[in-house]
Structure formats: C-alpha cells, structure tokens
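DM from R.C. (forwarded with permission)

"hey, sorry to bug you on a friday — could you get me a structure for this? deadline for the figure draft is monday and I only need the backbone to look sensible"
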Amino acid sequence: MPCLNGVQQITVSKDGKISLGWKATVPTSGTPVIGGGVMWITDWHAAMLYLLDPATGAVISELKVGDLPHFATPSLAQGTAFLPTLTGVTAVR
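My reply, with the result:
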C-alpha cells in the first residue's frame, strides 16, 4: 500500500483484522504493481524505478528512469514494464 512516507505491506485476515508488515527502506511515491515475481514502484521525486521483493520489501534492483510525472505507475505486459516519463515512455525488461 502506498503511504506518504513509502510503501508498507498490509495483511487483512479472513475476519477483517488489518495488520502491518514490512516497510520499504527506499522512498517511494507511486502505486505499487506486482508482476513477474517482483513489486515495481516509482519515486517520482528522484526519477527512480525500484523492484522490491513482495515478501520482504527488500530492494532487488533500482534504475534511474528520467523525470516522472506525479503518480507515475508502471504497466506490465509480456515481461516488460512500461513507465510514463515527462519525455515519453521507458520500457524495462
């Protein structure tokens, strides 16, 4: 779940109880997307794309992608992430 100060895992039990899990150690400002076994999330302040382990929140990889619009969210298709930038679209495999 995106939060003002990064992304944090939440779990909702069958009885509706919400519990907090890991919190990412990198600053993020976008909405997370899960695909290909990883979580893709952006930090538009720093023009970064992060790949996180969805089970632990640990950083798997990070990539400078260029200036991002606010709330930039990757779209995933056939093993590629497409990310809108202020100058076009960046594709990452």
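R.C.: lifesaver. The chain has one domain: 2-92.
me: no worries. The chain is about 0% helix and 55% strand.
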